[in-house]
Specification:
84 residues; alpha+beta; 12% strand
Length: 84
């Protein structure tokens, strides 16, 4: 990945405080996420990164709304319920 592209992604993260990487399996999302983590920490040292960097993977059935907003409306018998 060109340094300019990485700099743009880091600038976006600094402005928004989050990034969502999406795409089909095998396109390098996890690889990019780890490299961004190293760039933000400023180190690839195992001791430093093991205490500051964690990989989290969500089940493919988890919707964006479930993750970001934490709930999804569901209608049962004309009543609106939330699913946590």
């Amino acid at each position: 990945m060109p340094a300019e592209t990485l700099a743009q992604i880091l600038a976006r993260w600094k402005a928004k405080k989050n990034l969502i990487l999406q795409g089909p399996p095998g396109t390098g999302k996890s690889f990019l996420a780890k490299r961004l983590g190293y760039a933000l920490i400023g180190s690839k040292d195992r001791e430093t990164t093991s205490s500051r960097l964690r990989v989290v993977q969500f089940h493919p059935s988890l919707a964006y709304e479930d993750f970001v907003r934490g709930w999804r409306p569901s209608f049962c018998n004309q009543d609106l319920r939330t699913i946590a």
